[in-house]
Specification:
- The structure holds 2 protein chains of 2 kinds.
- Helices cover 80% and strands 0% of the residues of chain A.
- By secondary structure, chain A is mostly helical.
- Chain A folds into 2 domains: 2-40; 58-273, MetI-like (MetI-like fold, Orthogonal Bundle).
- The longest helix of chain A has 34 residues, at 66-99.
- The two termini of chain A are 33 Å apart.
- In chain B, helix 2 (94-104) packs across helix 3 (109-122).
- Chain B is elongated, with a radius of gyration of 25 Å.
- Classes of the chains: A mainly alpha, B alpha+beta.
- At the A-B interface, helix 8, helix 9 and helix 12 of A face strand 6 and helix 2 of B.
């Protein structure tokens, strides 16, 4: 209220113009490179120096590039596998932490958040040392294990947020109506926390599909994912194919975010009903 | 079939060091509308949860329909609960909510269909099957919760302050409706409430609880007219408490001296000897005021305050400058109405049998 009043008058109008300009500049700074990237992915010229007309050539050559195809396949295997595993375990962790008291819970709780705050590079080195000590052969399996290691925490956090608002009397009502523990979980608990679980799964998928540092350290020959592939391509210079690939990944991650937003919206509707 | 729907035998429930339920014994008869009444935190809800199976007793036994429950989980007990916040499943329609219990017991689809429509008819919610609980008003949600429990024909229906969230008018209407419903279906109702008026209106019997203990069990009339303790007399309705010492005991009557030379009388309902410190409890509506000393036992006093409250008038009368008593006088037809004004000298009088002798 007070600030609004201050913004009135001639001085206020000036201030408002400056703030608007500041906002615009910030947005341009953030989004201009992305716009350039997308525009040039349709540029007929090989070089980013000039616009030579519209083409889908780079997208076509992407589709024909066997190495990129293999990397995409690896990325989907890693992201899909680690998402499924970490969603199941993350949900179980969230349920255990929200519902039960056990000795060492506080220590476990703090440890659970470690993968979220720990720098990627530390985690990557740590995992690499672990795999070397364990004599594991680096490849898709080690990448998946590594991604599960950090994704569990993210899923657990998202699902716990949902569980925190869970009305326990709903489970009591189910048990009062002759549902045993399993039936109660399947018919009441799971459907009600599903938006949280799906939200966590989407977050895990997004984090996994664009992870670079940890994947780089834990991958082996033939297990390059898309980000690793892009990195090795960039080393030879930025080509329009890379622009096209990046634009493609941008669209996919935007769709994923949109989906998680829609899911969360649906979830909130249910909370309102409660 | 056992004579008692529910029996609790010396049941204790401790949460850590907190004693929530303290040696509670109850015998609730088949078909009874039984209320557990007490202030919040008195252990009434915990008692209900012990019967439902959401809590297991620390000591003592719970019997339902003559069978010892022990550690039997809630889903194997022949009781159903109407929760305080209704606890309707938000992701299911009204139909799915009501059908849930029958479905869990593998009742056939046709029977479920028929039973759900029948019970929704009974709670006056026909045509609402497809709605979600979030699309219903509080009163309608309440009815769905009731239907969801009743459709299972439980031996005992447990109700945890089911009307607490409704506004006063709706609550009053639902009280009568619930009572009528209970008489129609003949199911034993165990009803938890902190609202003494609600308990008096609906119950066949009431157990008054405080601090985890059952203080008195009786019909509404017994509880109201013959409270066994000062707490019960105070919690149920309004009461004047007159503290004093027993001055004489004769002919089944006790005379108590309150303050300086004021004698009040009460039936000798419990042991008392001269010199005991006791309390006499008198309901405000049992006291009458008159401007002439019609009764030799009437006590002289002065009207100090007059409050008109629609159905009746409340007076605060001071007895011989020492003790103040509240008096309620019903407002009758206007022409016969008489209103005393503050400062009027009056005689305060009540029948000895309407006074209660309680421990001090």
């Amino acid at each position: 209220m007070k600030r609004e009043r201050q913004l009135k008058g001639r001085r206020g109008r000036w201030l408002r113009h400056i703030l608007t300009a500041h906002g615009l500049v910030s947005y341009i700074f953030l989004y201009f490179p992305i716009v350039v990237l997308v525009v040039f992915s349709f540029n007929a010229s090989r070089y980013a120096s000039a616009w030579r007309g519209f083409t889908l050539e780079w997208y076509v050559s992407l589709l024909q590039d066997a190495a990129i195809g293999a990397a995409l396949k690896n990325s989907l295997i890693v992201a899909g596998g680690s998402t499924v595993i970490s969603t199941v375990f993350g949900t179980m962790v969230a349920l255990a932490m929200e519902r039960y008291d056990f000795s060492g819970k506080l220590a476990f709780d703090s440890l659970l958040y470690l993968p979220i705050i720990i720098p990627d590079i530390v985690m990557a080195v740590m995992l690499l040392i672990f795999f070397v000590l364990a004599h594991a052969q680096l490849g898709l399996v080690t990448i998946i294990i590594s991604h599960v290691a950090f994704n569990i925490s993210f899923v657990a956090v998202v699902v716990r947020a949902r569980l925190a608002y869970f009305d326990l009397s709903l489970e009591e009502a189910a048990q009062d109506l002759y549902a045993n523990e399993w039936q109660t979980f399947a018919r009441v608990t799971l459907p009600l926390i599903m938006p949280g679980i799906l939200g966590g799964a989407l977050l895990a998928f997004t984090l996994s599909i664009d992870d670079f540092v940890i994947t780089f350290f834990t991958s082996g020959p033939g297990s390059s994912t898309l980000p690793l592939r892009i990195y090795s391509m960039v080393k030879l210079g930025v080509t329009p194919e890379i622009n096209a690939l990046s634009s493609f990944m941008l669209i996919v991650s935007m769709l994923l975010v949109l989906l998680s937003f829609v899911l969360r919206k649906g979830g909130e509707g249910e909370i309102e009903i409660v | 079939m056992s004579e008692h729907a529910v029996e609790l035998v010396r049941v204790d429930k401790h949460f850590g060091t907190v004693v929530a339920v303290d040696t509670v014994s109850l015998s609730i008869r088949n078909g009874e509308f039984y209320s557990l009444l007490g202030p919040s935190g008195c252990g009434k809800t915990t008692t209900l949860r012990l019967i439902a199976g959401f809590e297991m007793p620390t000591a003592g036994q719970v019997y339902i329909d003559g069978e010892l429950q022990g550690e039997t989980p809630p889903y194997r007990r022949p009781v159903n609960t109407v929760f305080q916040n209704y606890a309707l499943f938000p992701h299911m329609s009204v139909f799915q909510n009501v059908a849930f219990g029958l479905e869990m017991r593998h009742v056939s689809k046709e029977v479920i269909q028929h039973s759900v429509f029948e019970v929704l008819e009974m709670v006056q919610l026909p045509g609402m099957e497809r709605r979600r609980p979030g699309q219903l008003s509080g009163g309608q949600q309440q009815r769905v919760a009731l239907a969801r429990a009743l459709v299972n024909h439980p031996k005992v229906l447990l109700l945890d302050e089911p009307l607490g969230a409704l506004d006063l008018k709706l609550r009053k209407a639902m009280q009568l409706e619930l009572k009528a419903l209970q008489e129609r279906v003949g199911i034993t109702f165990i009803y938890v409430t902190h609202d003494q008026e609600e308990a008096l209106t609906m119950s066949d019997r009431i157990a008054v609880m405080n601090k985890g203990q059952v203080l008195q069990i009786g019909t509404p009339e017994e509880i109201y007219e013959r409270p066994a303790s000062r707490f019960v007399a105070d919690f149920i309705g309004e009461t004047n408490f007159l503290e004093g010492k027993v001055a004489a005991v004769r002919n089944g009557e006790v005379a108590v001296e309150i303050g300086d030379a004021l004698l009040v009388y009460a039936p000798l309902e419990r042991d008392a000897v001269v010199g005991d410190t006791v309390v006499i409890a008198v309901r405000p509506e049992k006291i009458s005021l008159s401007t002439t000393p019609e009764d030799p036992r009437a006590l002289p006093g002065v009207v100090r305050e007059v409050v008109y409250v629609g159905t009746d008038t409340r007076y605060l009368a001071e007895l011989a400058g020492q003790v103040t008593v509240m008096v309620r006088e019903q407002n009758l037809a206007e022409e016969t109405a008489r209103r005393l004004s503050a400062g009027t000298a009056v005689y305060v009088c009540w029948q000895p049998q309407s006074a209660r002798l309680l421990r001090g």
